[in-house]
Amino acid sequence: MHATARRQPATRRSLLGALALLGTAAVTGCTIGAGEPGEEKSGEDQADGSAGGDAEEKGSATGSDDSGDETVVDEEAPMDLSELPAAIATAEVPATVDGDPDATLTVALHELRRDGERLVAQFSFRVESTKPDEAAWIYDYLGAQSWNPYLIDPVNLNKRTVPRNSTVEAQTNSQGAKFRPGQTLHAYAMFVAPPEDVTAMDVMLVEGAPLAVGVEIR
Question: Which of 33, 81, 116, 210 is most buried, by the most CB atoms less than 10 A from its CB?
């Protein structure tokens, strides 16, 4: 299925455009450790969509990949995520699924690409569970926690997080598109690029998993 990205709200366009001007503003010093928790939506916002329900939520589209598995695409992304390159790193963590304590969430990194002053990362999420009928957010599968990927610059020993303002992050929203176990969600995140002499980064795909070390920047 081919999906084209929707026109972005002004606040999102402004944030993504500002990435080229941020410099080191999104570098959180030289401490290597767990990512900072993101700001969660208020209870009123969360009431607009709970775990379960239809996977075709606002900001998502469904289709099938070449293997026949159903995919969900973050249509709020500023690029076409309908088709992703082969995975270059994966991480697996427990997933929160009602009635299935053995459910798992696999997060794959498909690309880490330099685009001017930005690094563009493309990800996918897939939940394996014996309870396949309920659609949920990334936030739900992570046990009511936001997804906070980050990068470690192994040359300059600093940590790069996703730029954000008070309302918008340069990444797939943890409470945006919903997907069911057995479906694959295509997602993205953007970071301020390191200096040109840095050709690889260590990537935290999802908290609770080991770093993917030495991921080549393309």
Answer: 81
